[in-house]
User: Fold these one by one.
Assistant:
Number 1:
Amino acid sequence: MRRRTPPPPAPLPQRDGIDPVRVRLPFGGVWATVREYLVARLTGAGPGVVEAMFDAGLIVGADGRAVAPDAPYEPGMFVWFQRELAPEVPVPFPVQVVHQDAHIVVADKPHFLATTPRGTHVAQTALARLRSELGIPSLSAAHRLDRLTAGLVLFTVRPEERGAYQTLFADRLVRKEYEAIAPYDASLALPRTVRSRILKERGVPAAREVQGEPNAVTRVELAEHRAALARYRLVPETGQTHQLRVHLSALGVPILGDPLYPEVTAPVPDDDFRRPLQLLARRLEFTDPVTGAEHTFVSGRTLQAWHSPERWAAGQEP
């Protein structure tokens, strides 16, 4: 078995908190040149784009020098380039830093802002913003929140320590508490622990519950209620995609502002910030795997439908 060669450090700097793209030429390739391979791989770039990047010297090797247009194909070779970002609608809400030390940054993310670059959301992400605002190019996310969910996210400062913090989440050693605003149902017996099997298929917006051994467990408690609305406390034991949204919808009390549950609705334009999903990652508790410190972090954000019901009813932005 061929041992995987670790990538060398990037010869290009970040741009606006975004890493340069790194490409490794695969073994067993049939391409004659590096350019030929990249043209075949980067088909989404558009006609002539890759060739123009070579001509401009924008594709570089590990030494930081431009790769020549006729450079021969070398299996295992790494090349880098800066991606050209498509325009994104700015998310007009700040990322609040709750805690920062030499090892971690805990941020309070607003609704509508993705945690890390993915799909069409690249620059408008918590990670890119924090790297630029805090001046920490090495910052990485230890876990993620959905773009539509607000609240606490843990980032790591040192690449060599990231795995230790990610393991906390993988081993369920982080106690997470969420808050949600949803309809009040007097007949719904709470507290209760919901257990089900959730399946999220690639390319399908909504997850669904299926038969089989449970892989999603959520403790659901009623914090308080007034009139037709209730504030729920959610304590997940697992971390399946959309788990909390699926479980509350299955109980008959879907979270306000949810575009997917109980049914998928028409996509909301990226510049429409009027109806944020009323779900908040309220609390994180864990023992720091590097320092041994006991951490408890609490979000300072509120959910509009509960704290500003008039603005929510009027469809006004938070």
Number 2:
Amino acid sequence: MTPRSAAHPALIALGAVGAVGAAAAVWGIGIERYLFTVREGTASVLAPGSAPIRVLHVSDAHMAPWQHRKQDWLASLAQLKPDLIVNTGDNLGHRDGLDGIRGAFEPFAGIPGVFVHGSNDMIAPSPRNPFRYFMGPSQKPPTPASLDTAALDAFFSEELGWSAIDNTVTRLTVAGNRIDFLGVGDAHCEWDHLEDLPAAIDGLGPRDAGTSVIGVTHAPYQRVLNGLIELGAEAIFGGHTHGGQVCLPGYGALVANCDIPLKQAKGLSTWTAGGRTVPLNVSAGCGHSIYAPVRFACRPEATLLTLTARD
């Protein structure tokens, strides 16, 4: 066999690999990142005798002003008529992202909600090599704020009526159910301060048997999940992971950008700490960095989770 004929199959294989790669890029960049979906589930979380509540969990919008399809889709979720909104952060993806966030969430005004921040609610994104994401958790951003976090908070709190719970707690009545929410700041940046929560919990006053407890975090690091359960959380909501963002079909996430097991990088699962096991919902989010505009085998999502009473 001559060298020329031996090389021919290799060239064919190389061309096939290149074609597959190009097709995957077209799909991930041009199609799948716009295939917004609602994932639904049910979890027995609430105090016995409680009426069910429908929770819309949104996360990681990373909004830029030109992303009108994402804005319209988020706004359309108001048609689901949720009883509660849980927003686990990274809403902004551009210095002018707040206008898009306003358009996306204005239809939810008056619906009870809670929110925590991710670093991208404070720090503007910057160009970086997207392949570094697959080499372990991303580098922590600098501390100084460069986005208008105060304006974002004012919109959420004053116009929508949502409660900010970074490293604090709040008590709400949702569809007749009393719920204590325990929140922490972005653990990826070590802005989580679980040690602040016991005093805040005491400040709520006595918790009766009919009160449910829900933990909320942006980045679902194990130390945060364990700490929230130890403080009484009966369910936990998190985001940050993007579900891996670029996944292998049939396998799942390659990275989680934190220390949570990869199989729990998105979706409804459970977490055990201190002898207690509680539902954990990690949203794959509905956005991406403007410098990594791709989703593959990991559709952008929001979650409609129905919480029911425990037996």
Number 3:
Amino acid sequence: MNETVDVADVMTGTGPTTARPRGVDGIDGVELRHLRAFMAVAEERSFTYAADRLRVGQPALTRTVRALEEALATRLLDRTTRRVELTEDGRRLYAELAPLLPRLAAALRAPGGQRVLRLGFTSLLPGACAELNAEFEAATGAGVRLVRRDTPLAGLDTGESDIAVLRGDAPPDADVRTRVLLHEPRVAAVGRLGATGPLARRRVLDWAELADHPLVVNTVTGSTRPELWPAGRRPRLACTADNFDEWLEAVAAGHGVGVAPREVAERHTHPGIRFVRLKNAPPVTVRLALPTRGAHPLAERFFGLGGEGGG
């Protein structure tokens, strides 16, 4: 008869004995890469997106997650042809690892070695951060490694970054502190063909006009949603995208109009899109974010540089 294995017990070695040999700590064969792989799939709900995020092949990622499940003697993920869902044990393990992995990553950095701060960002790092990075390096002697992660917290919650640059508000349930760095103006992104073609020939658009056109929204790292317009006068949601590149292609295909920070638009070109100046549009607030508790000392130092105040 099969016994139910509690993930926490397996991790600590206190649960029921299984057929699989285990060491005294109960986690023989479990490596940090296994846990990172599981966390990425759990957050992306997709092996394809998780593999892209970790920059590994999907077959290798699948083998890594399967190895973790075998080591723990329990199924962590339910896989279907369309989506990946966490099992009860998977949800329990995710809840335990989410706060632990960032601390573990910090603890494993070699004491006395090259000090490096990992600065997370999504889609594009604001140009103003170059001066901030230089000021930080001059003040601390530490380096800055840029980490792009197309997730709401730019890798801050998974331990892949020590501090992050976020556009817009942090997720309401995120356990982070934020500091305003700057405000960026918005521009409209308009496909040159199809129904949006006439708008692409305009020199300027009014923010209120966009309520009459379907909106393409990047729901993961985007900073513009229908709720920014007044109730009763909001654009219809045309379609959503999970990352900036998908968002660009949806706008170019004429599915609807997009809105982006001007700096992002100026540094991303697409033959099928024209970026049009917007008037009366609310600016995008750019913030620094770091964990509320257990932040890296270098992240605290970076957090105190520049900016307009806490939030």
